[in-house]
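Input for the complex:
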Amino acid sequence: MTGRLTVVGTGPGNPGQTTPQALEAIASSELFFGYAPYLDRLTLRADQVRVASDNREEIDRSRAALDAASKGAKVCVVSGGDPGVFAMAAAICEAIEAGPETWRRLDIEVLPGVTAMLAVAARAGAPLGHDFCAISLSDNLKPWELIERRLRAVSEAGLVIALYNPISKARPWQLATAFKILREFLPVTTPVIFGRAVGRPDEHFVVSPLGEADRQKADMATCIIIGSAETRIIERPGMDPLVYSPRGVSQ
Amino acid sequence: MTGRLTVVGTGPGNPGQTTPQALEAIASSELFFGYAPYLDRLTLRADQVRVASDNREEIDRSRAALDAASKGAKVCVVSGGDPGVFAMAAAICEAIEAGPETWRRLDIEVLPGVTAMLAVAARAGAPLGHDFCAISLSDNLKPWELIERRLRAVSEAGLVIALYNPISKARPWQLATAFKILREFLPVTTPVIFGRAVGRPDEHFVVSPLGEADRQKADMATCIIIGSAETRIIERPGMDPLVYSPRGVSQ
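Predicted:
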């Protein structure tokens, strides 16, 4: 038996943003592991089997997927967005490193996808057109002090910031604290973009100045992009403004 | 006449990584503006017209594209990768802001794509599995001193770093200097991934420790990912190692 494990990202949610390569990998797999809402987006055949789990169980899910592949199954591990950005590819690698030697002999493939910040940025214009960073605001797996230090370092250095996992029921206060820290380094007029389910019928998309940025505008599925001091807004009659970061800095 | 302008990204080069949404926008456009090698990747009909230009002419290209759209054409501006990451979407916005009022009334749409670092990361494992940044090493549009300051800030803060535009004939020395700066903050064993044309027949993919990272391994189409001190390598018998950044930091 020759099992294999493919880690795919289905993109930000709009079916037109899932790559043909990911669709092909899904079509040729037998067993699907993932967070239930991501598995719900797949159109599977009767012979394809779902193994859904909660979004806090990445390592257990990874072990189960690797075990199935080592027993000969064609396994697909499903993330939304890109599987390499705060998603399943790293969890799979962690499980392999800590797991049995046989898992290192498995055929493992990671297929890239459109990660949330790219879809939110495209909806806004081009806020990631200059140097930028992506930071997870979740302190489940790293100390909050480290997140604060990183927010200070990157905003002071002039990078645009994409925040993943900005808020959840278990982490209600961190986002407001992050905005407070960023206001120490950035003008209150800096554009802050809140994007959720961009390109889907339930899209939520708002641009606020940093001085008025409010954690109520985000939930756990929101990606937030905070401009740099260089990021600009172009007003347009009867349309959403364009938000963009110029390619150059003249300082 | 109702012109429109769509900015698309065709992904990193593997046709399976171009989104259906981008392909649809290409099929429904009449006039294509872009850097010649990106236009070469498109399969166009006889009634579709190419306007190729050099890769240093983004603003002139943007103006020509906006002018054509304002005269009623269905225009497609083509980037490789994602159009919002060091690519055409920001140039289009710059041209709109500096251009005639009529350009602000145009129907403008940006469609996201798989940007190079995501494809290189997927090929390697999951090096972008933790907080990361993307920095263009080109000092054509920003001072070199600013780039140095950013490299120091992000490596000291523990972010994984993706470098775009690492080297060119006109910028031969910057990459070696960048490696030298990074060696001040990161262990010499830190994995450095050089990825070019990943997923294409002419793929070039190398992993080196930072202490031996050599600018000769890169050209202008290479995306380089430099791990953090946490980034790990899993050796695998008879296969490329997996390079990944764990989701958590315990410090």
